[in-house]
C-alpha cells in the first residue's frame, strides 16, 4: 500500500534494473504481447514498471506508420500522466481546430468538432481532447517502454497459438516457438490470435462506403482550421482535411460513395482530393502514407480464452467518429496490466483476472454504441466522449460498505482534486494501491485510479485486500 507521493522524475531516471533487454528470463516470458500498437505498448509499459517479464512481438519491421487514431481523450491523458509520458504527448500535439465547411470553393460555415463541456464534478487537469498523430504517439510510448527496460521484437509474426494448464505457446511464422505464462492479443481488428482461439466477433457495418485515409502535404491550405467538404452531389462522397499538429502534414479522409475499389497510389489520393474539393491534384505535393478503412462496429464474444486475453481492436472495433477506439484500447491495457502484475507476483489469486472481461467488455459495448451514434449524427461529441465518467460500480471488485455513500463511490474514477494543498493524482501516481481518507470516508484506490473499496473507516478492508493483492 502506498500513500506517499511518487517522484516521477526519479522513476523515469531509474527504470527497474532486474529486467533484461529481450524481456526473457530462463528462456520464458511472463507475458507475451502480440502487437506493438498503442494497446500493446501501453500494456508493456504498465507491466515493465511492475518488474514483469513481458515481450512485445510486432510482425512489421517498424512501428505502424500513419496518423490513424489521432485523438486522445482526457481520461487517456490521465493514464499517460501516470505512465510518465504526458508532457511529451502534450508537446507533440495540440487541441482540435475549429472546422470550416466548404461548398463550391467558398467557406459556408464553421463549427467545433467536440462540444464544450462543463466540469460536471469529474475534475481533471485535462479538459479537452488532444490531437497527436498515432505514429508519434507510438514513438513516445516505445521510448518509455525501452526506458523501463522493455523491448519490441520486430519482424516476428505469430502464426498460431496453443495453451495448457501451465502456459501459452506461440508459434511464429519463422517456425520458432515462444513460451509464456500468459498472452495478450493486441494485434488489431483482424487479430490472428483471436481467430486462432476461435473467438467470434459480432457487429454491423456502420457505413456502407469505404474510406481512403492518407497523410498528405498541401502547402497552400491553411493550417488553422479543419477543412470539411460535404458530398458534392456529383457521385463523390465527403472529404475532410485536418492539419496534424507537430508536423507539416494533413490527414485526409475521403468517403468513396458508390464505389468499393480504392486506389491508394499517390495519383489515386490526389484524384480523390480533386474530386471532392476545390483543390487540384497538383496542390497535393506529397503523399506520405495511405490506407483504407471500412467503418464497422464489432465486439468479440469474449475477451479471454484460458491464459490468453484480447485487448484493443482485437476485442472491439469502432467507427473513428468521436475518437473512442484508441482510447478505449489504452484503457483495456491499463485495466489488465495491474491485474496481471498482482497475479504473477503471487499477491492475488488467479480469479482476479476474471474481472478483466467483467469490467472492460461492458465499457467497450457502451462505447461502441456511442461511436456508432456519433457516426450517424444521432449523438454529439460531448461529455461522454471524454471517458472521465466511465465507472466500474457494478463490478465484483467494487465494494461499497458505507451505509450512506457520498458522491464518490466504489467503482468510480477518483477525481483530480487538491486536498490540503496536495494534488490527489500526485499521491495516486505509480503502480501501487493507495489508501485515501477524505471527508466522506476511507477509500482503497486501485492502481488504475478507480475506487475499489470504500468504508467509514479502514476496519473491514482486510478480506478485500487479500482478494485483490493490495
TrEMBL record:
Protein source organism: Streptomyces humidus
PANTHER family, alphabetized: BINDING MONOOXYGENASE, PUTATIVE (JCVI)-RELATED, TRK SYSTEM POTASSIUM UPTAKE PROTEIN
Region (Disordered): 1-24
Keywords: FAD, Flavoprotein
A GO molecular-function descriptor: oxidoreductase activity, acting on paired donors, with incorporation or reduction of molecular oxygen, NAD(P)H as one donor, and incorporation of one atom of oxygen
Domain FAD-binding: start-end pairs: 28-368
Protein name from the UniProt record: FAD-binding domain-containing protein
Higher taxonomy: Bacteria, Bacillati, Actinomycetota, Actinomycetes, Kitasatosporales
Cofactor(s), names only, from the UniProt record: FAD
Domain of life: Bacteria
Biased composition range(s): Basic and acidic residues: 8-24
